[in-house]
Amino acid sequence: MTFDGISLVTGAAGFMGSHMVEHLVQEGVRVRATSRPRKDTSFFDRLGVEFVGADLTRPEKLPSLFEGPVDRVFHLGAICNFSTPYAKLHPTNVAGVQALSGLALEKGVKCFVHVTSTSVYGKYRGRPFAEDDPREPCNAYGQSKKDGEDVIFKRVKEGLPAVIARPCTVYGPRCNDGAGKVFSRPCPIGAIPGNGRQRLSNVRAEDTAAALLHLSLLDDALGETYNLAEDTNPTLEEALTLAAETFGTRPPTLHLPLAVVRIAARIGGFFAGLSGKIPDLEYDATGFLNDDYIVDNTKLKNTGFTMQYPDFTESMRQMQRWYRTTR
Question: 48 and 25 in contact (C-beta within 8 Å)?
Fold first, then answer.
């Protein structure tokens, strides 16, 4: 599949969206970036990228995003945390998907890449999550992403050429949200939750962006769903220790029972909510600490995609070099 028009990136001012824009520009793609209207567009100006402000919860403002030869959409715009209630997630994560994908179908785009989350799978079931596993989300965020996927599944039946991508925990430069922030910047970690032997799945932002572009170019990917994850699965203790070493903070040594961690998360969430902030440790996120959380990336690799950072340890060493040059 080839594209010679404009690639629209939603959520472009966010962590993952900004990496998507950056990667597309590096590949010589003509990009239109969008997120909620903002005064500071310096990031896009430096890249020579057109920025069009629009709010996904205001469908009457979205048609302007498709003016001109828009032939591809990378939809990353979403609320991505475990603290926002479903009623506030739905207008963006579900209704926003409905409105944007409807316009994409109407305008005849060649490919609509919908970025969702492995949170749709829910609790770990003792084996790596595969794309055809049941979707049984266990929190409001996962439910909103499942409902957004259902919109796209319906659009595919209506004729929308779409690909669904499910990244696991995304980390990398500029990450300040979600679970990936602990592997992306200095983050004082006082203790290791539980026994620390829970195995994790993560993925670098740069590899996520590259995978999304790769999938958009494959005719065989249309109508398909793909997990995005690294090859390695460090334990929680290994990952937290490596993160501390990477950013020069004290490695955690104390192990806290998960019951205590949940209480601390509940208290922290209460006080964060009073100030309108998302806590560093969200209560619903602690529900994933009981077991391993491993995501199968075989289907993606079978498309011929090769990651720049397939190994978590090597990736964190590179993050250390990046961090030292930006201080």
Answer: yes
Task: Give pLDDT tens digits for 214-237.
Answer: 999 999 999 999 999 999 999 999
Q: What SS3 class is residue 108?
A: coil
The C-alpha atoms of residue 226 and residue 132 are separated, in whole angstroms, by 10
Given a contact cutoff of 8 angstroms between Cβ atoms, the answer to whether 35 and 10 are in contact is: yes
Rg (CA), the chain: 19
Read off the pTM.
0.95
Residue 297 exposed, middle or buried by CB count within 10 Å (0-12, 13-18, 19+): buried
Q: What is the pLDDT of residues 19-65, one digit of tens each?
A: 999 999 999 999 999 999 998 999 999 999 999 999 999 999 999 99
Residue among 71, 50, 49, 75 at smallest CA distance from 5: 71
Contact 166, 259 (CB under 8 A): no
Two structure tokens written together for 275? 């100030």
Cα separation, 87 vs 117, in Å, equals 19
- Residue 23's H or E segment, with its range, is helix 15-26
